Known about the structure:
The complex is a heterotrimer.
Chain A: H1 2-24, H2 28-48, H3 52-76, H4 81-111, H5 119-122, H6 133-144, H7 146-167, H8 179-183, H9 187-190, H10 202-205, H11 216-230
Chain B: H1 2-52, E1 59-69, E2 72-80, H2 82-105, H3 112-131, H4 135-153, H5 160-191, H6 196-201, H7 203-206, E3 210-213, E4 216-219, H8 220-235, H9 244-247, H10 253-262, H11 267-274, H12 276-279, H13 283-304, H14 310-330, H15 334-361, H16 379-393, H17 399-413, H18 417-445, H19 453-457, H20 464-489, H21 493-497, H22 509-512, H23 518-541, H24 545-552, H25 554-561, H26 566-596, H27 609-641
Antiparallel strand pairs in B: 1-2, 3-4
Helix pairs in contact in B: 1-2, 1-3, 2-3, 2-10, 2-15, 2-20, 3-4, 4-5, 5-8, 8-11, 8-13, 10-15, 11-15, 13-14, 13-18, 14-15, 14-17, 14-18, 15-16, 15-17, 15-20, 16-18, 16-20, 17-18, 17-20, 17-23, 18-23, 24-25
Chain C: H1 2-10, H2 17-35, H3 41-61, E1 65-67, E2 72-74, H4 76-102, H5 109-126, H6 130-148, H7 155-186, H8 191-197, H9 206-222, H10 231-238, H11 241-264, H12 271-292, H13 299-320, H14 323-348, E3 351-352, E4 355-356, H15 366-369, H16 371-384, H17 391-405, H18 409-435, H19 447-462, H20 468-482
Amino acid sequence: MMIAALAFYVFAAILIASAAMVVSARNPVHSVLFLILAFFNAAALFLLAGAEFLAMILVIVYVGAVAVLFLFVVMMLDINFSQLREGFQRYAPVGATIGVVLLAELAIVLGGWKFAPGAASLRFAPRAEGVHNTAQLGQLIYTHYILLFQASGLVLLVAMIGAIVLTLRDKTSSRHQVIAQQIGRMAGDTLEMMDVRSGAGVRELGIIRPKPAPEPEVAAHDDHGHHGGGH
Amino acid sequence: MLYAVAVFAPLLGSVVAGFFGKAIGDRAAQAVTILCMLLASACGVASFVSLVYQGGTPGVVDLGTWVDAGSFHVSWALRYDTLSAVMVAMVTCVATLIHIYSVGYMSHDNSIARFFSYLSLFTFAMLMLVTADNLLQLFFGWEGVGLASYLLIGFWYEKPSACAAAMKAFIVNRIGDLGFAVGIALVFFTFGSIQFGDIFAAIGQHSADTYHVLGGTWPAFEVIGVLLFIGAMGKSAQLGLHVWLPDAMEGPTPVSALIHAATMVTAGVFLMARMSPLLDHAPGALAFVAVVGGSTALFAATIGCVQNDIKRVIAYSTCSQLGYMFVAAGVGAYQASIFHLLTHAFFKALLFMGAGSVIHAMSDEQDIRKMGGIWKKIPLTYTVMWIGSLALGGVYPFAGYFSKDAILEAAWASDSASGHYGFWCGLIAAFLTAFYSWRLLILTFHGKPRADHHTMEHVHESPAVMTVPLILLAIGAVVLGFLFRDQLLGEHWQAFWGQSIQIAADNHVLHAMEEVPGWVALAPSVLGFAGIALAYFMYMAVPSLPGQLASAFAPVYRFLLNKWYFDELYDAVLVRPLMALSRLLWQVGDATLIDGIPNGMASLTSDSSAQVVKVQTGSIANYAFAMLIGVVALISVFLIFR
Amino acid sequence: MGGAAMTWMSLNWTLALPEIVLSCCGMAILILGVVSRGNFFRLGCMLTVGAFLLTAMLVLSGANGVGYSGLFVTDAYSVFVKLLVLAAATLGVVMSLDYNEHENLRRFEFPVLMLFSTVGMMLMASATSLMTMYMGVELMSLSIYVLAAFARDELRSSEAGLKYFVLGSLASGLLLYGVSLIYGFTGSMDFALLAKALSDPASASPGLVVGIVFVLSGLALKVSAVPFHMWTPDVYEGAPTPVTAFMASAPKVAAMALLVRLMASPFGHLLAQWQQLIVLMSIASMLLGSLAAIGQRNFKRLMAYSSIGHMGYALIGLAAGTQAGVRGVLIYLVTYVFMNIGTFALIIAMRRRGRAVEGITDLAGLGRTDPAMALGLAVFMFSMAGIPPFSGFWGKYFIFTAAVQQGMWALAVIGVLTSVIGAFYYIRIIKVMYFDAPDEAFDVRPASLSFVAGVGGLFTTLFFLYPAPVVAAAEAAAKVLFG
């Protein structure tokens, strides 16, 4: 019990410290690295609370995917940090004042922490007996909270639509693959068997490449191809 | 049934003329509206006669449920009692004559259908107002006439002055309406109903009710009475909220005649009479009504003496006459106020339409200093203007004599301080009324012609379509007084009014006014003649005198000419500070303060793209800060005031 | 297997049938748009409108009850709000038809985003848990962020989208923080359980109320109540006009309805605690809405301030904290939606030689160049100013009477005073239209806009003749929260 409490305070302290470093580090790459550290510590806290599935998900998804993506973006973008810092310093006094007032108020409020009567009975049991963590989560997410799960799906769908709508552009100059056209092509369309006399030149035989005649049908296909590829 | 036809026929006319005016043409639109009005007036008069003279039973014509929400029930219904029937008959008759007159007056205008549609719409709204069976419906009509009046004052929207006047009328009326709306809310709050029947039936139970607001105790009826009167002040242009009425003369003259003389402005007086059962238990509110009424009567009369626009003079006289009506209401003689309302409607419409005829004749000239010497050329107009002025001045046996005398006698007989104040104001106003009426007559019709040669050549009598209504109104202005005096105010007034005007048991004004001292009855006539004599002396006998007087008493003259500086006062006290405040709030509040809290970034409204980018990064942070400050402020408020 | 089936049935999933059907329709339209050849925008809009109508029918015919383990409820209140939201969204989609063609925004994602946003709003209307509430808010907002930036090549529009997104995220943060505080203090997010846990106001700790303040702040941004209104003018001005119209109507309804349900139902016993905050926000919104609007030159910006003011009035009804007050809010929202959408339809119709104009001075002389449009705009302005007999007056009337019944005189008086000040700028527009020298005429108005403006105008004008059905429905809806 003692060790668990000790571990909790250690992880929590590191978590808060690294979170503070995320916003205060001078180098944004360091910020992201501290963020990763914060995720790890949060995962450890989850483990302590008995939510091992969540802890693993946090590590895999947030550290493995999201934070690494962050790192890429930060390293690829050319951000003028001194300019950002300037804004930070300008806003610092006001921000600090608000922050201090808010903190003071929250301290007053949380100092008087008091549960509503009957709150304890309402709280979800953290661990039901006989069902392991993952199964329990599954039951919650896919049965109990199916509505919220589906709604999250819609939110993600909207996010995807939004990203596409706001960034994807149909460029008329880009060339798209038209698979139907590709596989519908017959050998006869492109290959021509010629009788070549020995010693005769290409011009003499009338073989000119590329073929000069335009093909209207193909052009029409191209149009559709652009559109279809656009989405 | 006839009654409902009288109310809804104008609506039909208005709708047809308004929506199909273009399709059916001006002629047809005129014909439809006038036919509808004729039908309405026939039905209106018939229902009045059948109620009062053929022993019809008063009642309520139910039209359907309107709002039904919880404890709040209102239905569309027409109230059929003497007060409403009198008003319906009067409104439909006068409005019909004005419709007919407008055919001639507006013949050169290019949106005739629109004009007639508005005119009929106005009539309908006014009828809704006077036939309302509950305060909400009355308020509906009340706002309806306000809207129609706004449309009609601004009818010639090409004129900037007309637009300004329309706006002014609208805004000033809104202030009054505010009082009225709060008054209605209080009535509902007190009585739990806004049906007149329920309210009047419950008067006795609530007469001792009080409100506890602002650390004081206020008698319920007094508060309601004063609030309702504030509404009436706006609509009836009483002192303080009168500023819109003279400006409203920017509308076409038939509009002035219909709305700003005969009907709409009397809505306030009607409201007082309608709410008489309640007001009679609110002596304080009544005293206030009488004092404001008396002051207005005097105040407007003084201004009327120096105005030079023919319509403005009559407008101020309207203001003044409305003051009389409120004096009567304020001393508890509601019958007398309605009587004066009735006679006034006829002679004031007559005066306005006569003035319209003069303006028509003088090629749209309205300044009486540029008229004169035309009485031989337009004898008929001249005659009716005389009749109108005689009635207005209160000369026996014209209609105004009876009603005005009745009011002054009642004011004296009420034997209260406010009544006496009203009496003396009214008495002086009677003198001034006679003076400015004859000043108008003399300057307009007599003396040497002061218009240019070209205009004088074109002076002509108006066509029959305009003169016939004038003649009919003139007959009304002559006979209405002695025809109705005894029925409305005499010993048997209760037989005439039925239950429509209920007064408190201790209200004996009508009885007492028959026994006032002789000089009280005589004084108005004597002062009236003195006023006429003075006007004759100043403008006929010694025409140089007015100019000398004006320069000798220049400050007084300027004071009166500028209408006691009311507009300037409002501009300085209300309009400008409000504008400044709004500018301040916009610039300081949103543009400077919030944008500039951290660093004074670029202003919000810049539109060059470079600046937009700058604002973009800047203002998101600013906005976010503002939000956080808001959160902190809300939490602080909660923690401090918990 | 049997146990799982039991759970599945006990979810009562058919309650959310309208939402499910609407979402499926949205995804179907999306797929059709992707695979179709040629421009799918117009057809997509039509299908979306059809989906809305279908959903409205399902909403009307659905049963009442609580489902999804207490996360979701269907009652008279949610039905009222959903129908209003669907009506607003339908008109919003119709409005965008021609505007998007003109402005080169004809992409089928537009109606689809509106559709998903509407799903979010319907979730909000039915939310009986703080989590459902949050999901609904996010789904609604995310779609609107994208819509606001839809004209991505225009700086103003992308700026609007970004601004709204950043501030909206901040608000979501506040909301979630508040939710976690509330959960921490009571141990539940379910409205019914919260109400039970908080039934004794004396035992509510300050921390809990601070949590409520945070949640209130997050939602206040969505209804743009002062001091969380800052984004409104910029975003309204920058976003494409149909999006502004949509933003100013449906989401406002949903957010206000959610706020009312939240405050009245789980936190109803704490009325004394949050009432003063709502009163403050209401007064500040009314004052700012009426005063700051006076100086505006841009019509869309003016409408932004106007909507801030209107939300201030609606908050009065909430501050009253009674059934009559909630009824007032609902009626107010109905009247607001119709006059607002109508006004925006006419703003979209302000187009000269193919270019959209937004200045108030551009309306000069409209009374002569286009009398029908001027009449419509005049009706809406009169109604917004609260002048009888137009519907706007009735909204204010029910709100003010509710406040007066609770003895909140100061609030009612301030409301009336600000509405008088507000009348000034509404009537200035009428003055510009009828009394100023005419400018060049606007382009011919497309039928779709005339339709929307006509619907709004007829409702606004004729509401007073027969308000009984709306009032009765609002009464029934309000009764649910206090029943």
